[in-house]
Design brief:
Layout: H1 2-7, H2 13-30
Length: about 50
């Protein structure tokens, strides 16, 4: 982190580390897999016609 912050003006190593950790955390939160919700379908109405 210190090497990266040394190349960026007015940045501290802690700021760079915090930025990348938060970015990684946000990306992990967005990649969660959601299970599909099962929906029950009502059978069609039967009026006696076949």
């Amino acid at each position: 982190w210190a090497l990266i912050s040394g190349r960026l003006p007015n940045r501290q190593a802690e700021e760079i580390e915090r930025y990348w950790k938060m970015r990684e955390r946000r990306q992990q939160g967005n990649t969660k897999v959601f299970k599909p919700v099962c929906v029950r379908v009502k059978p069609p109405l039967n009026f006696g016609f076949r």
